[in-house]
Amino acid sequence: MKKFISSLVAITLTAGVFTACNDKKVVPNKDKPVIFFNRQPSDPKTGEIDMSSMNWNDQTFYVGFDAASGGIVQGKLITTFLASADPSIDRNGDGIIGYVLCIGDVGHNDSKARTEGIRKALGTWKGTTDPQTVKEGSVKVSGKEYKVRELEGKPMTGADGSTWNSTAATESMNKWVEQFGNEIDIVISNNDGMAIGCLQAEKFPQGLPIFGYDANSDAIEAIGAGKLTGTVSQNVDAQATATLQLIRNALDGVAADEIVKNGIQKTDKYGNKITAPIDYIPAMKALLAQNTGVNKDNWIYYTAGTRDVAIKHTNAPEKKVLLTLYNGADDFLASSYLPALNYYAPLLGLNLTIVLGDGQNESSCLNDFTNVDDYDAYAINMIKTNSGRDYLQKLN
């Protein structure tokens, strides 16, 4: 069933067994489970984790992926490709591997980690993720050392102010080809959406190596078709399931030290356990899925529709969850994360009301983060990473 909340869409997923009204324990909103996911509460400038939000209550956690490791995996994917590449990859034969970089959001921890991982792998890291601050690096291609130069790193911000913008990537790719021509030997992107945007550019040179991040379904198809060179899977099913499993555990009254383990690192009472490895970082109250490089050798294992068969239907009583997505048009969230939530929520007996934001204004989510008394738990994906308290204040 679908219903409209203001200008946004709320999607209701119903599953499980309804509990009688007189059996329902009244819990203050401030004591209910709060799970931040995908966008970690943090300072957009320094990246420092907002532990004030994370310590809201004992049942507040973050679910994401190991961003630092993900950047390293992407960097390794690129250097491994170059190590066995034909010398003709240096398109103009100048002894320099030139690349352009699509940056998602200069204030987002994940974007920063990917930019850092790429630059460190290629030797262009100069101690900062600032788009303008790089140095000349080096890399081996078929046993020979080449210089590496970042021709330009550019944040992909749309005309509407949205970040991680694929249309901006398409436009930038055309301009880069005009400006740099065959100096461009590789295209690298902080996510798949922008990488696909580059591939859609009219002037994109056919066969030019290009790397993305997220393992979205269209990116996996592009690898299979020989258009995209590689991407990184952040195990979206593991993340989506962990977000829901934490809520299920907390609402089932699982002991505090077991909330981050049951169904995640060990089998829960329903017989469920997420297959992909997930690490818990106590200092950040964070569950982080591990990353995997994807290329022409293993893309078939990441095709759309592959779900974790270890997660089965439970007989748990239904609980209601209010969940926000910062941008209903975001490539990764819309094509990968949301379908995973839709699949696993009914299995875990969770009824989700999903508010879709516009990716620009926090109010597009906050204005419909309402009727909070009606829900048993909350899952929050913010537009700005320093907006955690704005949501939590509504639970006081």
Automatic annotation (TrEMBL):
This protein's UniProt keywords: Signal, Sugar transport, Transport
Domain called MglB-2 periplasmic binding protein: residue spans: 318-388
Compartment list: Cell envelope
Molecular-function GO term, any one: carbohydrate binding
Signal peptide annotation: 1-20
Protein's UniProt keywords contain Transport: yes
GO cellular component terms given for this protein: outer membrane-bounded periplasmic space
Annotated family: Belongs to the bacterial solute-binding protein 2 family.
Protein name in UniProt: Methyl-galactoside transport system substrate-binding protein
